[in-house]
Batch of 3 targets.
Target 1
Amino acid sequence: MRAQSIISAGLASLALAACAPIQYEARYGPPPQRVGPSAATLPGVYADGPPQIMWQAQRSQCVPFARALSGVQIFGDAHTWWAQAAGRYPRSGLPAPGAVLVLEGYNTPYRGHVAVVTAVVSGRELRVDQANWLNSQEVTVRVPVRDVSPNNDWSQIRMWHIPSNAWGARIYRAQGFIHPLPLTLASS
């Protein structure tokens, strides 16, 4: 009887451990490093590997994935993140590694997306890691994002489409970047 309860307790702890949050590096390895400017002109050629769909990764949505990877402690739908960050986190139109890129919905104001910047390649291109971009709860890493706004202000972007190995046809409106240092710490 005692052996059975020890085995049951062991199996229960293994099941609970599988549900525990796993740190990004433990799951995917170290985050991608900054890539030199020469890579910006050669889509699909990166010092840290090509864009990749991590099907074997634990399934996720963009919000919990971005929160865990960036440390930005905002909850709720992606379309609410920009407003929620006001007064809590620095917001800007300039990308930086670790910042959260916030996209507006493409066909309704109640849709949005968040992704984490992992590398700034040039003034018009960066890399993000994100979840559920292809709507299959997948994690995609090292995904190129290009600023296509007329004023070079990151207000309009185009995302690399991994399955077709080409730039996506749709242009998305970006609200900007939420930087992970809370304003209370940034002002200290």
Target 2
Amino acid sequence: MIRIKNLHKRFQKNLVLCGIDLDIKLGGVFAILGPNSSGKTTLIKSILGMVIPNKGVITVFEENTKYSSAYRNKIDYLPQIANFPSNLKVSELIKMIKDLRGGQSMDENLIERFQLHPFLNKKLGNLSGGTQQKINIVLTFMFDSPLLILDEPTTGLDPIALIQLKKLIQEEKKNGKTIIITSHIMSFVEEISDEIVFLLEGKIYFKGSIPKLKSQTKQPNFETAIASLLNHDYV
């Protein structure tokens, strides 16, 4: 479904992605992990066509992202930081996105799920970061796209909203969708992910299931297994 071959991306003198080869199949939850500046967001934005690679090929739904943008209609993206127009009301933003996208949306169910009715007539600039993140989630999940890309989706969420997000991701997985996430919350990643991709210095150091990672690093704990990748002290 996503195939990446020999991907390189440089920003001036800084080589951010160094020969990435990656296949992501249809269906399941895939976590892209790594420390800050490891290339996670650059990789995601390359898949989305928001960053143009210096070298390499990316195909999504069998379309070459260099020559086509139509594949983006099958993707919903939750950015790490949502830059909402501060003067718009929540209801106005949701209506605007629905009008732009067209087709059926599931916003009412999601608004109820994340308890956003009290905020619909409030301006976005007056809302807390956690409430804005819930709105970000609604906008991402309210259309029936086969691929969801979530960049740090847990940021600012309270425990109840986090539980709802995890349930929502699992439901979409059962519907056959592919969900790609980045997160620094290892307990969240361990609970929902089928496979992880670990980036370090722009290269893939591991791809596979969490049990495989624990076995390879000889660590019973997920966090210590990730630390072993960072420290290069695994066999």
Target 3
Amino acid sequence: MEVRCPKCDRLLDSDEINIGADTAFCKDCDEAYKLSDLIHDRKPDSFELEDPPDGAWFGLTADGFIVGARTRSKTGCFIVPFTIVWSGFSLGGIYGMQIASGEFNILISIFGIPFIIGSVILWSMALMSIWGITVVKVEGALGRVFSGIGSLGMKKAFYWSEVDDIREEQYSSGNNSGYRRRLVLEGKKRITFGTMLNDERRYYMLKALKKMLAERDNR
């Protein structure tokens, strides 16, 4: 019996299903469901590959396909001004004062390194929340996941024939900041991506990739 989580579409393991108690529990989503509802009341999949949500796209190429989405979000309205203020005060206070006085203090400069790293991370998130994209492109046997702005960003290569499953998972982002969701390509190489996508665009990419995977296996 195959039972999938209605939230992340992952195939549940046998230890997540309790027939006697009529329950199904998804470890990734940390959600419990009534098993009989998942089995008997499943609605037909209404996913339309040709009808992507705003900010997402799909296209066939000569020897493959490309599916992507923008990481633009409303959080940019908060992240950008916060980053400007935070990096301005921290870096300006540490290094600006040294430049203004014309005196270099190596201890203070070393103390400022974590603030430089923090500013780089914050600015990366801020820019991604405005102009970023996440793209999966398959050309023949080769595939590539790209997350970035323009041609600048992180690239992860893989072999399309080695992908066994595509799913969404929940993971801890650390530092007591709660849980986030991302997409996963499972196979000989495990690739994660799509953290900054909103739910609608991430779901579209998930379903589009699963559809292409199913077509690959049916050939």
